[in-house]
Protein 1
Amino acid sequence: MINIATAPVKTYLSKSKIPGFDYVINPYIGCPHKCVYCYAEYMRKFTGHPEEWGDFLDVKTCEVPLRPAKLFRTRVMLSSVTDPYNPYEKQYELTRRLLKQLLFCQAQVYILTKSPLILRDLDLLKQFPSCEVAFSYSSADESFRQLAEPGAGSTADKTNALKTLHEAGIKTAVMGAPLFPGISDWKALIELTRPYTDRYGFDSLNMRPAYQRKVLTFVEKHYPQLVPLYSEIYVQEEPTDYWQKLGEEIQNYCRQENIRAEIYFGSSRSYSGG
Ligand code: SF4
């Protein structure tokens, strides 16, 4: 049972700390997708909500419209600490209203989601001067998706949405993130999505102390055979070369296959192919 409320804000815009973007818009506080690894869970402490992350959703309200003078041709990301197409967006249409304003402002948008609901707004996306939609996948395996991202769109629905957007001429990206050691099959993800995406990004499961216990408990429960590997990577103090090797493996494969990909972990951020 989710607790839904409204949250008046002075502005929907936040100055971006993410390279490549001027502003970030998070239309909601909270996220019903309930991913077990969600790094945005720290937001809960700013809200006063006693509920678990994923069990509350604040729908932002703001009287002040977005201004073209401020946003013309700026790069705006939706979203960094929520999914702009969580299932309640169907009812509230807040992301859709914001997209209409962003279109009026002629902003350039980058949308990161795990939901096929984005197809509802294809009519708007097509009109932007620049628009890219990225879908994130922690795995191509639907049974893992059901365990790790229980509220998000299914692997098949997400992939169909990716295909539809790509065929409609929208720039698309696949974020293989976060990659779970011993679980996420990045080659299977490439195989599943390659015809429908312009590029890839890959990121590691980078556990912050606040939620490391939650993720390790998840692994112990569902993948007990992987406990030694997770212990080697995340618990033991000796340095591990796991991510370095994985990054190199992905990079070499993408170079060979001429796949445009960025690796966000390992010794240095790297770029391959395409
Ligand atoms: S979709 Fe993103 S913001 Fe929502 S729970 Fe999953 S990781 Fe967190």
Protein 2
Amino acid sequence: MNQKLAITLRRAIETLSAAGIDSARLDAEVLLAHVLHTDRSWLFAHPDHILPPKKTTQFEQLIARRAQFEPVAYLTGEREFFGLPFFVSPAVLIPRPETELLVETALARLPKTAARVLDVGTGSGCIAVTLAVQRPAWRVIATDISAAALAVARKNIRRHGVSARVLPVQADLLAPFCGTVDAIVSNPPYVNPRQKPKLSPGVRDFEPHSALFSPDAGLAHVRRLVSVAGRLLSAGGLLLVEIGAEQGEPALASARALSPHATFAIARDLAGRARLLVGEYRHSL
Ligand SMILES: C[S@@+](CC[C@H](N)C(=O)[O-])C[C@H]1O[C@@H](n2cnc3c(N)ncnc32)[C@H](O)[C@@H]1O
């Protein structure tokens, strides 16, 4: 049956609210705009638009999945990061606004001229691609242990026209690399597996666990990166690793113990939460 847009939307908002979705209105609007290949402002301007039955069915299927807490980004296949659209799939972590601090810090700390950067655990490729788009003279190697994640990264590399300067490589952290780079950046898995029951269902039940969890209270990947970064960083090279808000002190203590030739600090966000481990490697090891 043909239905008016406003009625379909109201029903969807009711369904999502009843399921306990806090952002019911926004999510319903984003999903309807996605199904109609339009934007949310068009919906507001056309409340009496008659939806073809096929579109109504498609929308209702997405609303049913959202009511089970499947993230909107997986339903639309896209998420914005640093002002750019990125393809996402359940093979990759959905890019987070918090990670923009890592990108801002890399852009501020590294020379604008030719730099070589390694992005470890690239997932959707959001960090590697953004750096390459922002700095046309940089070359970036984007690694991930997951072949499925790298397939998504490759799509984003092509989408943003940086294939000539961003090289995707399947690797376990830094294992296959030799030579030197000016910076290693990474948003590694850092959630303490013990926190799993406390995660929201959208994260816990849908995002890849290999992108979320790390042993040793969430710090195993961070520690491994700190231990091996010196081998690849040029003198004066920079290591930027995203960490959890509670991990500032333990990450700093581990880093100083594991890599005494480097200088480490914690960068915080505007709310004062620890967000980045910043290492300067004065000596190549
Ligand atoms: C937290 S996600 C970050 C994804 C993306 N960089 C972002 O910021 O949205 C961590 C990524 O690290 C990858 N990963 C996990 N263990 C790894 C390892 N040992 N070596 C390389 N990548 C790894 C996961 O597959 C996942 O894509």
